[in-house]
Amino acid sequence: MTDSIPALQAWYGGTFDPIHYGHLRAVEALAREVKLAQVTMLPNNVPPHRPQPGASSLQRKAMVELAIAGNPLFRLDIRELQRATPSWTSETMAQLRREAGPDAPLAFIIGQDSLLTLRTWHNYEALLACCHLLVCRRPGYPVAMKTDEDQRWLAPRLARHADELHRQPAGKIYLADTPLYPISATDIRARLAQQQPCDDLLPPTVLAYIHRHALYRQP
Ligand code: ATP
Question: Measured from the CB, is residue 16 less than 6 Å from ligand 1?
């Protein structure tokens, strides 16, 4: 890396309904592995391909704020929450690319489950033209793609080493060696609806917020 190349910047999109340790700890490990100085949380408003969230946009934003408070690794970007229209990741990253200029290395962080469905995403090739994809491992989701064709598509795009992510602005897919965290927001919502404990699954400040606002009481 030379001094003239800007630092790799990374965004982490999700519904965060609610944010949990599977998000936070996986990305902290990823940041150490890839040498990310900052990760920007990007909660989405109306995920085009998913049912509507259990908590409102404002509540999901508040929970992300509580989860990252005091942790200098994280920032929050609420641009997708401020839009009335669906937030396509490819369009948001294209906007961030325009803001950063053509040479800055940019990355979007996903879990392995998202990589497996990447080729069904709106404009996924355009997304990869704007940024790298950094993939955290996730229990229950294989490292190989579902079909031989998908695997052939993936192979030439894989980064062999994290250094490549810092040397070029976009286009690489990095499969990180992050620890496995068997946590999902779906499971947390189900546990909360059944009044089961969730203390090990998300930060205490977020859990207190959920209880204070009586969120996720219905399955
Ligand atoms: P839900 O269960 O409601 O689908 P989720 O727990 O998968 O939610 P999202 O907000 O949809 O959380 O996920 C945002 C991103 O975080 C996705 O790219 C997803 O793959 C990733 N992610 C979520 N949980 C984990 C986990 N335990 N380990 C690694 N990545 C994760």
Answer: yes
